[in-house]
């Protein structure tokens, strides 16, 4: 697996592929790859002639009190996994390569980012929109792949691409879970054995909410109350939010009368985990 660290190297490689008319897929990640990332890479390999995986822990999307320093990193392991999935190139820049001295341009978004994770992580989506725009400009992919695990991120990126006429297709991929239901995440490595067990409250609470919806419940506050009640029984869990929002605008709704997203962020000990489902996937 070829790993490159500079924008110039990515551009040169992609230009070579483009000469023979090849299509290119991009999978943006922060690395420490797991089967969730693997599913995105495989989808890109299936749809495109060549696949670029970016591995970049983007400082701009972390708040000052967040886990930028401790975020797990292992580029050799990532390279093996990406290679097994059929990727062709890893772009693994240093922060200075992405944000040179004097960097001062940003891509930001209103409305969609003023709910859910945007409330607890005020600088997060500005960092995401900026880095994703840069990656799109560097790689110029035909398609880019994002997981539904980060549902708000997927909605924000889709909206940005539409608003700013970016010339590529965004592909959303299903959440990959552990056998017991926990959504796979690089941050799961922070959990000790007790926390790992406690972390099941997220997927179980969502299953409870999904059952209520399948049973005909339409009141969002009733569904949310039941999910919160379930999570609050777990002593290691602390709720950041449990919400049901319109899946296009990310604004809260009262009644399930349109395609919606049920989403939550819950601290298990010090680790903030997120999970969700789209009602249209039920
Ligand atoms: P990250 O490295 O956590 O920034 O994630 C990179 C991409 O992988 C994002 O589009 C995530 O939504 C996606 N992803 C992370 N975990 C999962 C998962 N369990 N299932 C599907 N996609 C995932």
Overall description:
The chain is of the alpha/beta class and 282 residues long. The chain is built from 10 helices and 9 strands. It is globular and about 55 Å long. Residues 29-30, 36-37, 39-40, 146-147, 149-150, 173, 175-176, 183-186 line the site of adenosine monophosphate. Adenosine monophosphate (AMP) is lined by residues 29-30, 36-37, 39-40, 146-147, 149-150, 173, 175-176, 183-186.
Summary, kept brief:
The chain is α/β, with parallel strands linked by helices and 282 residues long. The protein has ten helices and nine strands.
Structural class: alpha/beta
Q: Helical amount among residues, as a percent range?
A: 25-40%
Q: How many helices in DSSP terms? A: 10
The whole-number mean of residue pLDDT values reads 98
Main pleated sheet:
6 strands, parallel
- The coarse overall form would be globular
Backbone CA Rg: 19 Å
Contiguous uncertain segments of 5+ residues: none
Features:
282 residues, 38% helix, binds adenosine monophosphate
Secondary-structure map:
Layout: E1 2-4, H1 7-19, E2 24-29, H2 35-47, E3 50-55, H3 75-84, E4 89-91, H4 95-98, H5 117-120, H6 124-139, E5 143-147, H7 151-163, E6 169-173, H8 193-198, H9 200-214, H10 220-232, E7 237-246, E8 260-268, E9 271-278
Parallel strand pairs: 1-4, 2-3, 2-5, 3-4, 5-6
Antiparallel strand pairs: 7-8, 8-9
Helix pairs in contact: 6-7, 9-10
This protein binds adenosine monophosphate.
Residues 29-30, 36-37, 39-40, 146-147, 149-150, 173, 175-176, 183-186 line the site of adenosine monophosphate.
